[in-house]
Design goal:
about 575 residues, alpha/beta, Nucleotidyltransferase, domain 5, 4 domains, 5-stranded mixed sheet, two-stranded antiparallel sheet, 9 strands, about 55% helix
Length: about 575
């Protein structure tokens, strides 16, 4: 059934009484929801529309939906540009915008580039805006990616000086994009490092001869993966077998636990489920062995606790990575968490013994009781240590910007850094803030020495007639000096303050203290807007997979529909 051009009865009195034509509303909804018009041609939907809107109404055709889509897209781009200009006008000439970008290979083997803008608005709220997603169309070199970003900014009429940081992943083609653009780069390797243990302890999907199977990762230790698979198998057995459930109920009574402690199946979604599965499996199995020793009628079980000890020790090795991952995935994580995460992982993995775990009663770390780790746990720790050292090589170029991000985060204030790092970062922030104050209050050109007092009075009189303030050069210099001294006092007061909780929102703290540290706010807007990873772009591509896989949507309309729907979601809902 071919789509017919929209036939409306807008001239009728009933339609004229409506505030907006219902057909326009339907077309707008179809354009926003990425639903092709012919999806609604099914008899059931057509029947419902006719019952609701009358027998003379017809569903909008392709041209109507595409026209509304273009109008909405232009409106969205206008809203984004207005918001960007309003943010940049707060501090003209000072870059406070961060761009994160990523590439994704679509099912048709074409590479799509996603560009997301990160900034902090006047209300000190972190904003993320998807302003471009389209086919790259050329080879995925760093120069081509940088050229595309510049072209989009030129098309939107944005000033390149407002771009402060360009963030990308650690791949070979993306790591040089910031250098090609001439801005500070921030390679996000933190979330990759935090999730690296998952490759070491679980099987990953691999495709061989067109068949996808679960295999051991190329960089993983087969012994560790084999042990983890055995733990998962036991967890499934005790989870779903009714006889085992009854046996575990006896163990619960033996342990005198008031709350049921079931063995969990790892969902591979969060590290908390992984570590929790290991710890609970060890506790229950060890208690079951003791119960079996007291009651010989129980089923035969291994007499050794070596495998269960390995489970407990591996859980202790993975605990710091769990804390790091939770910190990175806790909402829109900013780049200030990158260095503390690496510091925490280094401190835990470099120590020979013991391994520290988080206490249940207080947010502190306590050592395990055993003097040595199990052999498998020690091998896993050595492998993760080498991976961490490899990732640390990517931090050298971006360490200055990460130090500033961490210092301006009230959760850390760079307390985990060295004295030289703290002093150097404070000095760099003071110099940057002083330059910003000078830019906001530029020095007046020196007035030439007057020949006579009468000529000097005439110049002052004309300035008064033009409405220009007559400020003496000495007073102007004194005012700038006072502002710089105020900035220095605010930096000193901030550095001597107490850290807030790790799960607190740093911008909420700055909103409460914005008047106390008002000279530092431009620095906060610039550096706390830098994200910790390209997770936002990866989330965009995850949402785009289902849409791009639908071959019924016209290829030339895919990019516009993606930018419209996903851009509206980020702008209005901040998904």
């Amino acid at each position: 059934m071919h789509m017919q051009e929209l036939r409306t009865t807008c001239e009728s009195k009933q339609c004229m009484a409506l505030p907006e034509c219902p057909t326009q509303v339907i077309a707008t909804g179809l354009a926003m929801d990425r639903v092709p018009p012919f999806w609604s041609e099914r008899d059931g939907l057509s029947f419902m529309f006719k019952k609701l809107l009358g027998p003379h109404w017809r569903l909008p055709c392709h041209s109507t939906v595409n026209r509304h889509q273009q109008d909405l897209l232009q409106s969205l781009r206008g809203r984004v540009s207005d918001l960007v200009r309003a943010t940049c006008n707060q501090n003209p000439g000072y870059g406070i915008l961060t761009v994160s970008h990523d590439l994704w290979q679509a099912p048709d083997n074409l590479h799509y580039q996603c560009q997301i803008l990160h900034f902090i608005d006047a209300d000190l709220v972190r904003r993320r805006i998807l302003y471009y997603v389209d086919k790259l169309g050329v080879q995925k070199t760093s120069a081509n990616q940088a050229t595309r970003i510049k072209a989009v900014w030129n098309e939107r009429g944005w000033d390149h000086k407002q771009m402060a940081v360009c963030i990308s992943d650690c791949t070979a083609s993306a790591r040089n994009v910031a250098a090609d653009m001439g801005v500070q780069g921030a390679l996000c390797g933190a979330h990759i490092t935090a999730l690296e243990p998952r490759r070491q302890v679980f099987k990953v999907p691999r495709q061989t001869d067109g068949v996808q199977t679960l295999q051991v990762h190329e960089d993983a230790l087969p012994e560790v993966v084999e042990h983890m698979e055995a733990v998962r198998a036991r967890a499934k057995l005790y989870r779903f077998t009714e006889a085992k459930r009854q046996e575990m109920d006896n163990v619960q009574k033996f342990l005198a636990d008031t709350k049921p402690k079931r063995v969990l199946i790892d969902s591979s979604a969060k590290w908390s489920s992984t570590v929790e599965m290991l710890e609970r499996e060890f506790t229950l199995r060890a208690a079951y062995l003791e119960l079996k020793a007291r009651h010989p009628s129980c089923r035969e079980l291994p007499a050794s606790l070596d495998t269960f000890t390995a489970s407990r020790d591996i859980a202790g090795v993975l605990r710091p990575f769990q804390l790091c991952t939770n910190l990175l995935q806790g909402g829109a994580a900013c780049a200030s968490v990158v260095l503390p995460c690496f510091k925490a992982l280094e401190s835990q993995l470099q120590a020979a013994e013991p391994v520290y775990v988080q206490a249940d009663t207080a947010p502190t770390l306590k050592p395990l009781q055993e003097e040595h780790l199990h052999t498998l746990a020690r091998a896993l720790r050595d492998r993760l240590r080498s991976q961490l050292a490899k990732e640390n090589q990517h931090l050298e170029w971006q360490r200055p910007v990460l130090l500033k991000c961490t210092l301006l985060d009230p959760r850390f204030r760079l307390r985990n850094g060295t004295v030289q790092e703290r002093e150097g970062t404070v000095s760099a922030l003071y110099d940057e803030g002083a330059r910003l104050l000078s830019a906001e209050r530029p020095e007046e050109a020196p007035i030439a020495q007057a020949v006579s007092p009468r000529r000097q009075m005439k110049r002052s009189f004309l300035a008064m007639m033009d409405g220009e303030p007559t400020v003496d050069a000495a007073d102007e210099s004194s005012l700038r000096r006072q502002e710089r001294q105020a900035l220095k006092r605010q930096l000193s007061s901030y550095m001597h303050g107490a850290n807030i909780e790790k799960d607190a929102d740093p911008l909420e703290w700055w909103r409460e203290h914005r008047h106390e540290f008002h000279h530092m706010l431009p620095l906060v807007k610039k550096y706390l807007a830098v994200p910790a990873s390209t997770a936002d772009a990866e989330r965009i591509f995850s949402l785009a997979k289902a849409f791009l896989a639908d071959n019924r949507q016209r290829a030339e309309a895919m990019s516009d529909a993606l930018e419209l729907s996903l851009g509206l979601s980020l702008l209005d809902l901040q998904l």
